[in-house]
From TrEMBL:
InterPro entries: AAA+_ATPase, ABC_Ni/Peptide_Import, ABC_transporter-like_ATP-bd, ABC_transporter-like_CS, P-loop_NTPase. Its main location: membrane. GO terms for molecular function: ATP binding; ATP hydrolysis activity. Residues 5-251, 271-471 form the ABC transporter domain. It is a peripheral membrane protein. One of its GO terms (cellular component) is plasma membrane. It comes from the Bacteria. The keyword Nucleotide-binding applies. This is ABC transporter ATP-binding protein. Keywords: ATP-binding, Cell membrane, Membrane, Nucleotide-binding, Transport. PANTHER family: D,D-DIPEPTIDE TRANSPORT ATP-BINDING PROTEIN DDPD-RELATED, OLIGOPEPTIDE TRANSPORT ATP-BINDING PROTEIN APPD. It is found in: Cell inner membrane.
Length: 473
């Protein structure tokens, strides 16, 4: 790569990321320029997010970066940590992959946005609060301004993180999976926002497994696999004539092209709800819902973010009581065989416990062998080397697959899959869905699949229920 860096550009030159003697990202180079964004595509664990954290200076403990990252007249890798942190929010803004971890659980959303205007831009508190309300309204969260993060859906938390990042107005924006877990309408809005950042002259690095995002943003595309950049070039060329076999597989794995799946019929209903209703304050999520989950079938639930999809699944599991109605579960089955795959896996893992210890404890508690764990590791393409890491040290997609492993280890008769593949690239998504389909056929497990991807639901669900947005009670 040419070592000359133009004013306003960011040049990543021979960047390598190591874990001890092992090169997690062997060596990559690219340049960001105003009006020419870069989108990194690739499977979970390919190193996309590590590249972003290397630029930020926030690599997880145990990882180190070499090479150079030239920005604003300096080599970021050579700067002291304190100086790099001073750039955060002012020059470099990160929209993180896990909004659950990026938001303060003890603060309402509006004050978190207002803090950016006050501390980064020096506005007084009155003006900062006004700006915060406007930022939240732009992402459709005007009514959630007084909510805490735990009171909002995963998609709503993602939009709140977008509002905070937008408020920072740094010259470099790194968007890590910005559309993950969002419905189609909100995805369109987020993409429009990223285009506006691009058109305003900000440097834009987007990390995603959603090919439609890369197509919409244009500019340059890099496709990563096992830490290597296997394809790199203008978006039009990469999308129309990918040069690597993995690139071709990635672009061909869109659920819209999958064949329809219909498993063999089985007798019995695992779980049913009658007359279910639930409201939160003056927001009525659903009312008079009748639903049943036959053995060996998948029921799909789609709808906009915050419409009550997750709440319905929690009601069916007994995690949240309905305001009215009743849930009947197949008698004689232990409660642990009714499982949930959480939308935000970091919230479901002990942050200070290594993955191996958590799985070993679960297997011992429920009388499962380590051989059963190993078999699922193999089926989910999870490397043994990940077992000795903490949840924060592995990618969101890998953590989601560990969450699925944990649920399947208990041999569930019912699985509530809440955005089960939202963190996975298309190739990994197809592999996980194929595994779920195999287990449904093998065991008769019933699946309630909540998803924003209508094409995915249409291909694998026997029936799809479309939820509307919440209404005033």
């Amino acid at each position: 790569m040419n070592a000359t860096v133009q004013v306003g550009e960011l040049a990543v030159q021979r960047l390598a990321i190591h874990s001890g003697p092992t090169a997690v990202v062997p060596e990559i180079s690219f340049t960001l320029a105003p009006g020419r964004p870069l989108t990194l595509l690739g499977e979970s664990g390919s190193g996309k997010s590590l590249v972003a954290h290397a630029i930020m200076g926030s690599l997880p403990s145990g990882l180190a970066a070499t090479g150079s990252i030239l920005f604003d007249g300096a080599d970021l890798l050579a700067e002291p940590a304190e100086r790099r942190r001073r750039r955060w929010g002012r020059q470099i803004a990160l929209l993180p992959q896990e909004p659950w971890l990026a938001l303060d659980p003890t603060m309402r959303i509006a004050p978190q946005v207002a803090e950016v205007h006050h501390y980064v831009h020096g506005r007084d508190w009155r003006k900062s609060r006004q700006r915060a309300r406007a930022d939240l309204a732009e992402v459709g969260l005007a009514r959630a301004a007084a909510s805490y993060p735990f009171q909002m859906s995963g998609g709503m938390c993602q939009r709140a993180a977008i509002a905070i990042t937008h408020a920072a107005k740094g010259s470099l924006l790194i968007a890590d999976e910005p559309t993950k877990g969002l419905d189609a309408q909100l995805c369109t809005g987020v993409i429009a926002g990223l285009k506006a950042e691009r058109d305003a002259g900000r440097l834009l690095l987007t990390i995603t497994h959603d090919v439609s995002v890369a197509r919409a943003l244009g500019g340059m595309i890099g496709i990563m696999l096992d830490g290597r950049m296997v394809d790199y070039g203008p978006a039009e060329r990469v999308l129309s004539a990918p040069g690597d076999p993995y690139s071709r597989a990635l672009l061909a794995a869109d659920p819209a092209g999958w064949p329809q799946w219909r498993p063999p019929a089985r007798d019995g209903v695992v779980l049913r709800g009658r007359g279910l209703a639930k409201s939160f304050g003056d927001r009525r999520l659903f009312h008079g819902i009748d639903i049943e989950l036959p053995a060996g079938q998948v029921l799909g639930i789609t709808g906009p973010s915050g419409c009550g999809k997750t709440t319905l699944g929690n009601v069916l599991l007994g995690l949240v009581p309905p305001d009215s109605g009743a849930v009947q579960r197949q008698p004689g089955i232990a409660r642990q065989r009714f499982q949930k795959l959480w939308q935000d896996p970091p919230a479901a893992f002990a942050p200070r416990q290594r993955i191996r210890q958590g799985l070993a404890d679960l297997a011992r508690l429920h009388g499962r062998s380590w051989a059963a764990v190993q078999a699922l590791l193999d089926r989910l393409r999870l490397h043994d080397r990940l077992l000795d890491r903490h949840p924060a040290q592995i990618s969101g997609g890998e953590l989601q697959r560990f969450a699925l492993l944990r649920a399947l280890l208990l041999e569930p008769v019912f699985l509530f899959a809440d955005e089960a593949t939202s963190r996975l690239d298309p190739v990994s998504q197809k592999e996980v869905i194929d595994l779920l389909k195999d287990i449904v056929v093998e065991t008769g497990m019933a699946v309630l699949m909540v998803t924003h991807d209508r094409a995915l639901a249409d291909r694998i669900a026997a029936k799809v229920v479309e939820f509307e947005g919440p209404r005033p009670g």
